[in-house]
Every structure is written in C-alpha cells, then in structure tokens.
Write a structure and sequence with these properties.
Blueprint lengths: L3 E6 L5 H13 L3 E6 L3 H4 L2 H8 L3 E2 L12 H8 L2 E7 L1 H8 L6 H8 L4 E5 L3 H4 L2 H12 L3 E2 L3 E4 L5 E5 L3 H12 L1 H4 L5 E6 L3 E3 L5 E3 L5 H12 L3 E6 L3 H14 L4 E4 L18 E4 L10 E2 L1 E2 L8 E4 L2 E4 L3 H17 L1
Parallel strand pairs: 1-2, 1-4, 2-3, 4-5, 5-6, 9-12, 9-13, 13-14, 14-15
Antiparallel strand pairs: 7-8, 10-11, 16-17, 17-18
Helix pairs in contact: 1-3, 1-9, 4-6, 5-8, 11-13
The structure holds flavin mononucleotide.
The site of flavin mononucleotide has 15 residues, from α5.
Protein name: CoA biosynthesis protein CoaBC
GO molecular function: FMN binding; phosphopantothenate--cysteine ligase activity; phosphopantothenoylcysteine decarboxylase activity
InterPro entries: CoaB-like_sf, CoaBC, Flavin_trans-like, Flavoprotein
Amino acid sequence: MNKNILLCVSGGIAVYKAVALVSKLSQAGANVKVIMTASARQFVNPLSFQVMSKNDVYFDTFDEKDSNVIAHIDLADWADLILVAPATANVIGKIANGIADDMVTTTLLATTAPVWLAPAMNVHMYEHPAVKRNIARLADDGYQFIEPSEGFLACGYVGKGRLEEPEKITAIVKDYFAEKVQSLADQTVVVTVGALHVPYDEQHIVRAQANGIIGQALANEARALGAQVIQIENSSVDYFMQQLEEYKDRNPQVLFIHAANTPTVEGAPIVSVEGIKAITFGQKVQGTPMLTVISDSWIDFSTQAQLDGQLVDVTNPKLFAQAFWRHLLQGEAQ
Ligand SMILES: Cc1cc2nc3c(=O)[nH]c(=O)nc-3n(C[C@H](O)[C@H](O)[C@H](O)COP(=O)(O)O)c2cc1C
C-alpha cells in the first residue's frame, strides 16, 4: 500500500492506540504523517509519533518548517487519505461547523482527500444529541466513519465508544485502496425498498408500514460503489418474484438485498431466495440467505442491527449502508 496517510490525532484517552495505528499502517507500506491537537499532546509526547512514522510531527499552524510551502496546505494536498483517530467529540463538532482554529481542523478544511473519522469517547458523549447531529451532518458532507466498538471504556463505563482496534482500522484502509478489485463494479444488485404487498382477497392487499430509508440508503451506496442497481418498490410479492427470475436468468451472479418489509399472511406468496445470493432482514423467505441482518423491530424503524454478530448503529441510514457494504466486501475478500 504505497499511499500517503495523514493521521490527525485529537485528545482522548485512546491517543496511545494511535501510536500503534501509525506502526500498523507503516508496516502495511503506507507513508504516514501525523498532526496532533494540543489536547492530544497532553496524552502522548509527539516524539512517539515521530519515531513510529519516521516523519516530523505537526501541531502548530504557525510553525512553518519549510519556507517553500505552507504546511497545512502542503499536508492537505499530500494526503491520499486523512484519518482522524481518535476523533474527539470536540473535533467532530468543530469540523461539522467549519471551524479551523488549529493545525488539525485547518488542514481538514483545506483538503480534497477523503477524510475518515474514528470517534472515541465516553458512551454518554457518543450518544449526546449534539454529537449525533454533528456526525450526521459530516456523513451528509461525505465524511466516512469508522464506528467505535463496544466494551470497557477508560472512564469506567461499559458501552460504545472505544476506538476501533489499530489492526482493524489498518485492514479497512488496505481494503479501501484495494477497493477497485473488491468494489461492486460489474455487479448487479436488486434491492427491495419500503414494502412489498400481498393479496388479502380479490379487492384488497396487505402492505406493512415502512418508510424505505434503509433500502434506499443501501441502494445509494451500492451505486456509489459502482453497482448496477435495480430498485424495487411498491411491488406485489408475485410480480417481484417474476422479475427476480428474469434478473437471475439474465445474470446468475445477481445479488439480492431484500430490505423491504413483506407481510406474512396465511396462504400468501413468499419471496424465494433459492439459487440466488441473497441478504434478508428477517423476513420469512423460501431458501437460505447468505446473510440475515437481525434487528429488534423492522429495520426501517430500528436503532441497532446485527451483521454476523457484530452490532451496528442504524440511526443514520447512510452510515449503516456504508458499514453494511464494507462488511460484505470484506467478507467476500477473505
Ligand atoms: C483524561 C481525559 C480523557 C479524555 N478522553 C476523551 C475521549 O476519549 N474522547 C473525547 O471526545 N474527549 C475526551 N476528553 C476531553 C477532551 O480532551 C477535550 O474535549 C478536549 O478539548 C479535546 O480537544 P481536541 O479535540 O482539540 O483534541 C478527555 C479528557 C481527559 C482529561
């Protein structure tokens, strides 16, 4: 991975893990440079990052080491990818509001490179409406997130807020740069969105409540990853099954994401996933899906879901869709 990774380190207890992250990224062949906030320097001396990255560490916007360039513009242009890890609640709030009052935030405003944030904080901070609002706004602006994991937090709480492990972040970065091979280019994806309906009697149909936000987000992300997406909404199960057979005949490798709510009515037709690569969300189907996403209530109205036993937040559909496709592509790559 001969890529330039700029690591922005903000001031949380997980700063020590960022040192290991520099080491893992360097071992994976990346060229790493580090910028630290003033708070981050309270936790770890910049020398550790300097030694691990074999590069100068930046923390003062006005300390121009090279008179030929302006450091924050130079770094912003140098990076193929910027990681903010750990990303504090404070730094997330500043970026979401376009504030540029230190070396990290100024560089982040100056870059056109993709920026990924790995939040790490106390679980109550992470669940605070202001933090959620800032994360949602950044996701809308095109920032990507590496979600924190659950477990014991340094503050004594157990919950979501731990910085994702350096090995895992490095694997995601490697995967991203290998994405051309693993992306959804040449893949046809059929996504059901919202609700399918079944007949009740000759005059009536049964259709469940749905708002379609998850199916829509999964379809949008699949398009962004290069897939040819066929989106099915407001169809009857019968009609949809006919269409699915046609897609299967035309392209046996079609991937079917069944995100629509489908009511279970006695005697009514049931979606079949026989002979097809399918992912379902707990609906009753014929055949065995390659993955079933489990959630407490219907996915469009859930806050959390399980992907192969891994808990994923569903409150932001776009972030969920990114996590979903990342999980699937990583699984396929292994
Ligand atoms: C011991 C200690 C641990 C902290 N851990 C975190 C943390 O994990 N996440 C976080 O968002 N803030 C944490 N903070 C608070 C931040 O350091 C504080 O909000 C600071 O202003 C962040 O500055 P920065 O975003 O510029 O790095 C911690 C503070 C202390 C004293």
